[in-house]
Amino acid sequence: MIIYGTALLAVCHLLGIFIGDLLGQALGVKTNVGGVGIAMLLLIFARLYMQKNHKLPKLTELGVEYWGALYIPVVVAMAAQQDMVAALRGGPVAVLSAIAAVAVCAVVIAVINRSERPADAPVSAPMLHDNPLLTEAE
């Protein structure tokens, strides 16, 4: 069943690359525009749709979650490297705007974290499998 999660990721990736190529052609550039991001959105929407309609078995959901968790950091690292190279070649304005964007994000995250109210009672973490060997301490 986990392989179905991999298959769903592959289908979403291929569709995202195809749509990104079409979007690039529509904008008049000879490159893929946002194909990987579109693929991730397709994966999220497909998973939510399948969960809502009870067509997503638990093992398939675990496969989708695994590849989604692995996929996002790789894509972010690739994009960050490309953006950094382009920024350094673009001159000081591009570098300053990147630094400003990171600073604004840090400030917004700090404001959001400070505005959260602490939970009244701690919520226990959900368990993926019921394991009789893992019971609470007596």
Q: How would you describe the overall organization of this protein?
A:
Keywords: Membrane, Transmembrane, Transmembrane helix. InterPro entries: Maln_transptMadL. The chain crosses the membrane at residues 7-27, 33-50, 62-81, 93-112. This is Malonate transporter MadL subunit. The protein is mainly α and 138 residues long. It has helices at 2-27, 35-52, 58-90, 92-115. It has a domain at 2-87. Helix 1 packs across helix 2 and helix 3 (58-90) packs across helix 4. It is flat and about 55 Å long. It starts with a helix and ends in a 23-residue tail after the last helix.
Q: Structural class of the helix and strand makeup?
A: mainly alpha
**In percent, how much strand structure appears in the residues?**
under 5%
Query: How many angstroms separate the termini?
Result: 35 Å
Number of strands: 0
Helix content: over 70%
- The unreliable regions are none
Order of SSEs: HHHH
State the helix count. 4
Radius of gyration (CA) equals: 20 Å
Question: Would you tell me the overall average pLDDT?
Answer: 76
Pfam families: MadL
Protein name: Malonate transporter MadL subunit
Keywords: Membrane, Transmembrane, Transmembrane helix
Organism: Variovorax soli
